[in-house]
Each structure stands twice: as C-alpha cells, then as structure tokens.
Amino acid sequence: MEAIEDNEHVIEVTDLRRAYGGGFEAVRGITFSVDRGEIFALLGTNGAGKTSTVELLEGLAPPSGGRVRVLGRDPHRERAAVRPRTGVMLQEGGFPSELTVAETTRMWAGCTTGARPAAEALGLVGLAGKADVRVKQLSGGERRRLDLALALLGRPEVLFLDEPTTGLDAEGRGATWELVRSLRDAGTTVLLTTHYLEEAEDLADRLAILHEGRIAATGTPSQVTADRPARISFELPLGYFVGDLPPLAALGVCGHETDGRAVRLRTREVQRTATGVLDWAERTGVALDRLEVRSASLEEAFLGIAKEAVV
Ligand SMILES: Nc1ncnc2c1ncn2[C@@H]1O[C@H](COP(=O)(O)OP(=O)(O)OP(=O)(O)O)[C@@H](O)[C@H]1O
After folding, report:
1. C-beta separation of 131 from 103 below 8 A
2. Atom 16, ligand 1: which residue's CA is nearest?
3. Atom of ligand 1 nearest to the CA of 45
4. N or C: where does the chain have the smaller number of CB atoms within 10 Å of the terminal CB?
C-alpha cells in the first residue's frame, strides 16, 4: 500500500461542511490537520458537530462542502484503500451479545487484514481475563474496552476514538490513556472526541473546540488556555474586606468574586496581581489563608467559549 510522505499531514480537513437532509448544516467550514504520531482531540458542547465530523473522516458519508484527506486519500471515495489502515471505535459498538469476548474478537479478526492475534488485542486493553465471558455479561466499562480492542485489531496507522472512556471508572480511564499514549509513541495517529476536558488536557498534543459547527479555539492545551485569565484565591482575616485591598484595577484584576472571607481574583497579569496582593498583606501585617495561584484550566476556556458564543 502506498504510504503518504512523512512530511504530509495524516489527517487534513479544509473548509469542511456537512449538511443533513432537512438542510441543517452541522459542520460549517472547519479546517485543521493532524500529523503522524499526534493525538488530536475534538471537543465541543452537545450537538457541536464532533460526531458529524468524525464520520466524514471515517468515510461514512461524503462532505457537502470542503475537503477531507486521511493518509493522503479521500476516505469516502477511496474507502477500500483507507479503511484497512484505520481503526474505528464508535460510541456504541454493535456486536452480538450472546458471543463470548474471545469469539467476538476472533470474528472481527476474521474480517480484518493482517489482524493481531485476538489474545494480544484483549491483553492490550486488560480484558485477557474476560475472554470466555459473554459480551452481554460485561460491564459498561468492559464493553468500551472491548470496542477499543476491536479497533486495534488491524494495527491501525490512524485511530478514531469517539468518547473512548465514557462509562469507565478512574482506573480504567487511566489505563486507556496510558494505552493511547503508548500507541501514539509507536507512531499511531489518534483523533479522539471527548466530553472529559481533563482527558483532552492530559492526553491531547493539540485540540480544537467546536461550537455550533465551527472551530472556536484550537492549538495545544496551553495555547488554548493562554489568553484566559488566571485565578488568585485566598481568604482574608476576620475584619478585613476586599475593599481594604489596593484598587483592584491597579493590580491588573479583570474580575473578582467574594464569598464571606474568600476572595477570588481573575487576572491576565498574574505576577503583577500576586505581587500587589502579597505586598499589601506584608505591609498590613495580615496572613492570607488558602492562598492559591492557578492558570486557567481547559474547562474554564471551554465554558468561556460556550458563554461568549451565547452572548
Ligand atoms: N442525521 C441527521 N439529520 C439531521 N440532523 C442531524 C443528524 N445527525 C446529527 N444531526 C444534528 O447535527 C448536529 C451535530 O450533531 P453531532 O452528533 O455531530 O454533535 P456532537 O458534537 O457529536 O454532539 P454530542 O456531544 O451530543 O455527541 C446536532 O444538532 C444534531 O441534531
């Protein structure tokens, strides 16, 4: 099979659009690319267009506008060439529930060219001990892991993971993240959708936040959070109020909240604000309890984007 050049993008999406039967446009001109060995996360509110986009990447439907390339090819028109080189983990894997885990995996392997041995795929996702259990008896989290094992059977170069850790407990989620990282380190390109922002923050090399069919923010997790205000929080001693601090605007504060003695300041100039607050505490001779300085999390960036878009 012809391989794409190393310097080309493994996934390339240009001004992509998808309209449904009634004329509703779920994907409204998005552009991004994913390089070999990168983990790219698509985030977004419900109905933002993540699944609609991933289905186009998987070649399940043609776009209504724009262009999509996976491994240098059109995944819809050249599906026969692209599909064997990709692994797909859908939101709801549909397999016969009466079969055992091993039977299901072997059946799937039978339809996959160059498949890994079933036991190896099950071992990767920690299901080796469940080989003889019927699929219907698996827990929700175990079914998710079986979905992942099936997606990995063909040693895919590109892996599409649609909400891979939904229903998994903290341990299962951690194990899946570790597996995805090791696949990435071995050169697999991963595109995932997720509702867990800490998952994207932890796992993704780069990400895009979709909102109403458009990309509202994209970059590395730290680029996406960089222009969001950081937070400085502390508790004032009894008898002191936020009005006792120097004028907040002069400290570079762009917003604040108080709750009893607790004060939370938002700032884009963390050093200036923190120095101003600590200088004041020193001069006044007060101790600030529970002092914390935190840069914006992806969750704050996400909520900010959703809120701005509503205004
Ligand atoms: N077959 C369809 N016909 C018409 N509209 C559809 C169809 N499939 C999806 N939509 C609409 O397109 C929009 C995007 O849906 P999509 O499933 O891509 O969102 P999503 O970001 O994956 O959402 P979620 O996080 O809820 O899974 C939604 O408003 C949805 O109702």
Report:
1. no
2. 49
3. 25
4. C
Tell me the C-alpha distance between 243 and 220, whole Å: 38
Is the pLDDT score of 197 beyond 70?
yes
Output helix, strand, coil percentages for the chain, rounded to the nearest 5. 35, 25, 35
* Nearest alpha carbon, ligand 1 atom 6: 20
| Complex-level ipTM | 0.96
Tell the residue nearest (CA) to atom 31 of ligand 1. Answer: 47
Spatial neighbors of 185 by CB under 8 A, at least 6 apart, are 37
Q: How far apart are CA 69 and CA 51, in angstroms?
A: 17
Q: How far is CA 99 from CA 133, 138, 241, 273, in A?
A: 8, 11, 66, 62
Q: What is the pLDDT of residues 126-137, one digit of tens each?
A: 999 999 999 989
CA angle 75, 149, 50 (to 5 degrees): 45
If one residue of 16, 17, 18, 20 were mutated to test the ligand 1 pocket, choosing by the most ligand atoms within 8 A of its CB, it would be: 20
Q: Which residues pair with 231 in a beta bridge?
A: 266, 294
Over residues 106-126, the mean pLDDT reads 88
Could you read off the pLDDT of 184-193 as tens digits, one per residue? 999 999 999 9
| Atom nearest to 210 CA in ligand 1 | 21
Element (H, E) at 16: strand 11-19
Ligand 1 pocket member 46 (CB < 6 A): yes
Is the CB of 91 within 6 Å of ligand 1? Answer: no
pLDDT of 248: 96
Measure 52 CA to ligand 1 centroid, in angstroms.
6
- Could you tell me if the CB of 52 is within 6 A of ligand 1? yes
| Nearest CA-CA partner of 197 in 37, 45, 67 | 45
